Amino acid sequence: MEERIVMTRTVESVVEEVFEILTRTGGEQYFGEAVSKLAHAEQCAWFAEKAGADDELVLASLLHDIGHLLEHEMAVRDERVGVVNHDELGEMWLLERGFGPRLARLVGGHVDAKRYLTATNAAYVDRLSEASKETLVLQGGPMDEADAAAFATEPELRDILRLRSWDEMAKDPELVVPDIESYRRRMVAYLASLSR
Ligand SMILES: [Fe+2]
User: Fold this and answer.
1) Which stretches of the chain are DSSP H helices?
2) Which H or E run includes 83?
3) By residue range, what is the domain housing residue 120?
4) How far apart are alpha carbons 44 and 143 in whole angstroms?
5) Phi/psi at 36 (nearest 5 deg)?
6) What is the pLDDT of residue 81?
7) Which CATH number characterizes residue 88's domain?
8) What's the CA-to-centroid distance between 80 and ligand 1, angstroms?
9) If we measure between CA atoms, which residue out of 95, 83, 91, 96 comes closest to residue 107?
10) How many domains does the chain have?
11) How far is the CA of 188 from the centre of ligand 1 (A)?
């Protein structure tokens, strides 16, 4: 008899899966930086929190690099920078699990934000870490004029750029911030509010 496997995801199982991934693999060093991937995520969320970001933006900040932590057939890997397409992969993976389109877009746009800023803001390039400058090349380099003009019309542009600025700051080995557990209830409430 043929067996049918029915995948059912609940809010709780999604949050469990996300936390399991972030805590299991997040202890690895964040490429070329002095912090772990988990500390990077926690610091990014904390900067969002301190800036008064809404819950969805805080959670997007926490999850923006989850694409780096996924074992996925669509992951394009490079030994120096990890998953090259981690932005798109994270966006797709989060959408599949019931995260909202805005959160997914904030995650999916964080690499293009760097490509946009390096094309439009000369001072921004100096603020990038060495590792981030190196990954920029692999990510396609600064946008050309047409792509930058198109990105400038992105509805979530402002928050994508805010997330990007916290991403740049979230690489401080001395900074102690609230740990990931402090976001668990918020993630459950957020997902539950969307699945209603
Ligand atoms: Fe990041």
Assistant:
1) 11-25, 37-50, 55-63, 86-96, 101-108, 110-120, 122-127, 130-138, 145-151, 157-169, 184-195
2) strand 82-83
3) 11-191
4) 24
5) -80, 165
6) 72
7) 1.10.3210.10
8) 15
9) 91
10) 1
11) 23
What's the 65 CA to ligand 1 centre distance in angstroms?
A: 5
Is position 147 within any domain?
yes
Give tens-digit pLDDT for 154-186.
999 999 999 999 999 999 999 999 999 999 999
Ligand 1 centre from 168 Cα, in Å? 7
Does residue 27 belong to any structural domain of this protein?
yes
One-letter amino acid for residue 129 of the chain: S
Angstrom distance (rounded) from CA 57 to CA 46:
11
Distance (Å, whole) CA 165 – CA 75: 25
Secondary structure of residue 172 in the 3-state scheme: coil
Report if residue 95 sits inside a domain: yes
- Cα of 122 vs centre of ligand 1, distance in Å, is 20
pTM of the complete model: 0.91
Residue 90 near residue 62 (C-beta atoms within 8 A): no
- φ/ψ region of 75 (left if φ > 0, alpha if ψ in -120 to 50, else beta) reads beta
**Within-domain flag for 133:** yes
112: Cβ–Cβ under 8 A, 6 or more apart, which residues? 87, 143, 151, 160
